[in-house]
Amino acid sequence: MADGWAHRVPLRVRYSETDQLGTFYNSRALEWFEVGRTETLRAAGIPYAAMERRGIFLPLVEARLFYQGRARYDDLLEVQTRVALDGKASLRFDMEIVHQSDRAPVTSGYTVHAILNADGRPTRCPDWLRQVLLTASS
Amino acid sequence: MADGWAHRVPLRVRYSETDQLGTFYNSRALEWFEVGRTETLRAAGIPYAAMERRGIFLPLVEARLFYQGRARYDDLLEVQTRVALDGKASLRFDMEIVHQSDRAPVTSGYTVHAILNADGRPTRCPDWLRQVLLTASS
Amino acid sequence: MADGWAHRVPLRVRYSETDQLGTFYNSRALEWFEVGRTETLRAAGIPYAAMERRGIFLPLVEARLFYQGRARYDDLLEVQTRVALDGKASLRFDMEIVHQSDRAPVTSGYTVHAILNADGRPTRCPDWLRQVLLTASS
Amino acid sequence: MADGWAHRVPLRVRYSETDQLGTFYNSRALEWFEVGRTETLRAAGIPYAAMERRGIFLPLVEARLFYQGRARYDDLLEVQTRVALDGKASLRFDMEIVHQSDRAPVTSGYTVHAILNADGRPTRCPDWLRQVLLTASS
Hints:
homotetramer; alpha+beta; 5-stranded antiparallel beta sheet; 23% helix; 32% strand; elongated
C-alpha cells in the first residue's frame, strides 16, 4: 500500500478481552498482533498454517508494545501490519492498532520472529517466503 | 431465519486459542458464544454495549457445552445463535458452532443470563428488549 | 477427604481474568476447573502431563457451570474437585469454587472427559488410572 | 534481596496457556508479569487492589519481552521482579521468568506504568508508594 502498511484487518473488541478498568487487558494486544500477522500472510498468498505444513515456523523472539489509547468492548479497531526480513534468519512485523472510526491510536509496536525449520533450527529465509514478503510489502 | 437460527457469524480460530493438543482450548468456546450473542443483539438492533448503557446487564448464570469436534488454528467456523426469554427475568441463548465449509459440528450448548438493572437486581424483561428478541428470532 | 472433596487448591484471581463488570470473565471458570483437575491428579500420584506421556488423553466432552457469586481481582479462592469414573470410558470431575475466607460460592459444575489412547480412540480406563481415582477419592 | 530481585513467585504453566507448538502462547508472559507485579506489591505491604482503592492506578504504557526458552504445561516457573521509579510519574518493573529447577531462562523484559490518580491524570509518585518501592527493592 502507498502508506507502507502491508495489510489492514478490522477487529472487534470482545467482552472477554476487557478488564476491570473498562478497557482491553494489555496481553490482548499481542493476540491482536497475531491476527494481523495471520491475515497479512494470507493476503500475500501463503497462510501461516500452510507455512507450518511446509516446515517453516516463526516463533516470537522479541515483542515491544506501546499502549497509546483506550479501546472498549465492541469498539471496532483496525490492525495494521508491515513485514520485512530482519537479518538473514528472522522476520520483523511492525504493528499499529487504531480505532477504525477516527484513527485514534490504541497500541503500536513490533514483533521479531526466528525462521525455524521443522527440526527447530534457525534457517535462512526460503525463496518462496522471500517472495511472499515482497508481495506483502508491495 | 427459516431454520430457527437468529444469527450466524463467521469466526477464525486464532493461534492464541489453540492448546498443545493442536485443537482449541475448551474455555475458548465460551468466548465464541459471547461473540455470537454480541452479533445477534447487534443484528436485532440493539448492541449489548448500548444495552448496558441503558442500565440492563445480562450476566451469565449457567452455561452448558458439548464438545463435538476438533477445530484447528485458522479454521473458519460459524457461530449460530438463537435467543429466547427463559421465564420472566432471564434469557437463554442456544448456540451451535460448526465448520463453515462442511457444517461439521464443533461445540453446541447454551447459556442462561439473568436480566439485571443498574442496581444489580433481577428485573422483568423490558418491552424494548422483548421487541429485540422478537426481531432476533423472526 | 471426609466431605467428599478429593482435593482443594488455592487460587488468586488475576487482573487478566477480570472483565469490565469488575468480576471474573465467565470462561475463566473453565480454566480454573483445569487447575483443579491438574492438582487433583498430581496429589493422587500421577500428574496429567505424565498421563499424556503414557498415552492417555482426557479431552473434555461436556462441561456445565453454574455462576453463583462474584470474585474480584486478587480475591483468594479455593477450587474443590471430586473425580469418578463415568461409565467405562469416561471420567467426571465435580467442581466447586468458593471464596477461601467465608466459603461463599463462586462457581460450581462439572466436566466430563473421554478416555482416549494415543491414537485418539476411546479406551477402557486402565488399571493404573482406576487406582489413581481410588486414591483421589479416598 | 542480595541479587537485586525484589520478589520471586512460583508459577505453574496451565494447559490453557499452551498453544499448538507445545509451549506457552506468547501473550501469557504479559499475564505472568502481572502475577509478579501483584505479589511484589503485596510483599512490600500494599496490595495493588488496595492501591486502586486509594485512587492510584498503574496502567501499562510500554512492555518489552524477550522470549528465551520453552516452557511446557505443568512446568514450574519462577517469576522474578524488580521495581523502581522511572522519572517522576512512572514506574518500571524489570522481569525475568526462569524454570525453578535449573534456572533456565524463559522470558525476560520489563513493563513501564504511568502513575495515575482517580481522574486518570498523571500524578507524582505519592510518598507512601515511594516507601513501598524502597521496601520492595531492599
